Amino acid sequence: MESVFFFASKIVWALITPGSLLVTLGMAAWLSLIAGWQKMSRFFLSLTALLLLLVGTLPLGEWLIYPLENRFAANAALPMSPAGVIVLGGAVNPALSDTWGQTEIGDAAERLTAFMYLANLYPDAQLVFTGGSGSITEQAYKEADYTRFLFEQLDMGERAIIYESESRNTAENALHSKTLLNPQAGEEWILITSAFHMPRAVGVFCKVGWPVTPYPVDHYSEKDELLRVNYRFSGNLRTLETAIREWVGLLAYRITGRTDRLLPGDQNACGIESDA
Fold first, then answer.
1. Longest CA span, the chain
2. Which of 67, 105, 150, 197 has the fewest CB atoms within 10 Å, i.e. the most exposed one?
3. What global pTM score does this model have?
4. Residue 105's CATH number
């Protein structure tokens, strides 16, 4: 069932991504014009132009992503002596790394830098990297392999780091990592991932019975400047796609039972209320 879910999620997202929607509307306007449907063509063209204007000038993606990034506090208090530190993959492009023979880091590089920071802060903690490949066609290239190479280049080779390389999504990150590590009740583990992704990640780890302390990084929203107008189409579209994909992922994980709540946060992580 995990494989069915993985393939279905990739196909559905490819069809509903905002960029694909804009292309579809533009094609619909052109085909309607060719067919002589003038009113229909004007409708699709007007809708396309309106969406291009809104996406290009307003931080729509930040409006959607800020509620996710605000679920867990940045730089919150950390455990004194955690059993381990876990970082989710997503920062390294394994196929591109294979092409050039070196680790190619893209978005979410803060996941790796935060991991290195906490590795130095907790010299006795077990370190865990979990991430294989999220691509349908490039499963031969594993993110964990090139992350291992990067950490060895950065003189982290002496630390005992466990690399989990078979997971394809967040649900498998939690399942495979728990199988490898067998965490015990009462142990404290720190989880690093992008702030917008932390609610889903925490929900998945809680679902498999592994409470974690969130350490969110890689923020997208300028929380004090959300009401602004400027033209930055490519950046705005990218953030919008990230936000919509994460909200769709949250809904899909909740509906399919991979999490037991839609939006875990500081006050309800793993269903435990804080004393605050």
1. 71
2. 67
3. 0.91
4. 3.40.50.620
